[in-house]
Amino acid sequence: MIASGSRYVALGSSFAAGPGIRPIVHPPAGRSGNNYAHLVAAELGLDLVDVSYSGATTAHVLDTPQDEAPPQLDALTPETALLTITVGGNDLEYVGAFLRGSFLNTVAKPATILGRRVANRIRARVSYLKDDAAYQTVTDSLTTVVERARERSPEARILLVDYLSLVGPATRPRLDVPLNEEQLPSIALMADGLAAAFAKAAAASGAELVAASAASRDHAIGSAEPWTTGFTLRPSYLGGHVSYHPNAAGMRAVADLVLETLRT
């Protein structure tokens, strides 16, 4: 177990930052004060340095500034005792493809008034499938993140925390998400490829794996108790939410998975 008062650094993209979950403590990053890092730190009494940032790729963790933020690895010091990493989805445009497809399909419905050909052109603008090389690149990048992190923080316990499942057995095309029967399985395949990249990177680097993807499969969109949000065009000031991202229950679940791993 990590001792109380130890330095904990959280790296990652929006699935770590928690956009849309109140309170938002850093608006440019979409970083929530109730994301899983904050919940873990509060539970264990840790000194949290959370540099997770919505939209981040593995490059933003390794060596590329994002907006005003320096590369996320810069937050690591030799005193860091715990490190969690949730990044790589944006390298594949995982959520981005899901969002674009959902938006275009929603827009295509009224476009059918102009003719089915116009509607089909709108729907055809999204590519959902990635080749094996793309997943291998994410695996290699995650492995490099762990290796570079270990150089900066040799005593840190390093956890690769993968992405909550958006699509699961209960997710129905057209009803729960605005994708059809051909599009939805492609999103599920991309999620599987991302989860496999985390598992391979953990095995290659010696980091510990927190498989949030597997634990949340029965809590995907369309389930009785979803841990992620569905699609909406409604803005937040009209009661909308950030589409296809963890909700408060999902962040709590990921925090519990991290705590369970740390207590093992």
TrEMBL record:
PANTHER family found in the cross-reference section: LIPASE 2, SGNH HYDROLASE-TYPE ESTERASE DOMAIN-CONTAINING PROTEIN
Name this protein carries in UniProt: GDSL-like lipase/acylhydrolase family protein
Residues in SGNH hydrolase-type esterase domain copies: 10-253
Gene3D superfamilies per record: SGNH hydrolase (3.40.50.1110)
CDD domains noted in UniProt: SEST_like (cd01823)
A Pfam family reported for this protein in Swiss-Prot or TrEMBL: Lipase_GDSL_2
InterPro entries assigned: SEST-like, SGNH_hydro, SGNH_hydro_sf
Domain of life (superkingdom): Bacteria
